[in-house]
Write a structure and sequence with these properties.
It contains 9 helices and 7 strands, in the order αααββββααβααββαα. It is α+β, with helices and mostly antiparallel strands. The radius of gyration is 19 Å and the shape is globular.
Length: about 240
């Protein structure tokens, strides 16, 4: 499938989701948006172009956890831009409403490109095989045939995800340093309550979706991905550097 046809196909996913809103997890401190600011916002929307934003074509909903802390789980709403047949990029929010908080970013690459990465770099990436085959990664609003075509492109890809706003931990502002996130790789890892709540709100059935994807061709996970499963946990940490006198 060529990038243009994929864009046309997955552009459907950005429409028709308003009835299944997922509100943000936390309130943001600050004064209510003023009339002046709203006027400026409206004017900018009418005058300025936003090519990178307008290129976002696909809405995916799935789940992440903190590398090294499988109990730190959260739902993640991905808004994806297709750069070419082997590279996508996503902005990640804690909801799918206008006031959702921007939690982080994910870069998605093909299996071929993943296999060209050096070993240390591979440790930062997670596989999408289980997420797709299990039905835990969904494209809300997309017809079954289109969903299957899209997921056939994603099932053998790899993602590198950083979260910068930890709204799942009641952070009202984007405090602290970015954290590396991972994806689930087997049954029994994802909190079933999170999955059930997602399915209820978005009106999807994970088990039905899983059955529909049974015949998707999924390669074995490439060596080096999902390093957390082998005790390789990578996270950033803050350090103080003394200035030389």
């Amino acid at each position: 499938m060529k990038p243009l046809s994929l864009l046309l196909l997955t552009g459907l996913t950005l429409t028709g989701c308003g009835a299944n809103n997922t509100p943000p997890n936390t309130a943001v401190p600050g004064e209510k948006t003023s009339t002046q600011m709203r006027t400026l916002e409206t004017g900018a929307q009418m005058i300025q172009s936003r090519p990178p934003v307008e290129a976002i074509s696909t809405y995916l909903d799935g789940f992440h956890f903190y590398s090294g802390d499988q109990n730190g789980q959260m739902e993640a709403h991905h808004y994806v831009t297709v750069l070419n047949d082997e590279v996508m990029q996503a902005v990640i929010y804690d909801g799918n409403t206008k006031d959702a908080r921007l939690m982080g970013v994910e870069y998605i690459i093909s299996e071929r490109l993943f296999n060209t990465l050096p070993p240390e770099e591979k440790k930062l990436w997670h596989s999408h095989r289980y997420e797709v085959k299990s039905g835990s990664l969904v494209a809300p609003g997309l017809p079954a045939a289109a969903d299957k075509a899209l997921m056939s492109k994603i099932v053998n890809t790899y993602g590198k995800t950083w979260h910068t706003w930890h709204t799942d931990r009641d952070k009202s502002l984007p405090l602290g340093i970015p954290t590396l996130m991972m994806g689930f790789t087997a049954d029994g890892q994802l909190n079933p309550a999170l999955l059930q709540d997602r399915d209820r709100r978005l009106k999807v059935n994970t088990q039905e979706i899983k059955r529909e994807r049974e015949d998707l061709v999924a390669h074995p996970v490439a060596e080096g991905a999902d390093a957390w499963q082998h005790g390789e946990v990578i996270q950033l940490r803050q350090t103080r550097l003394r200035q030389k006198e």
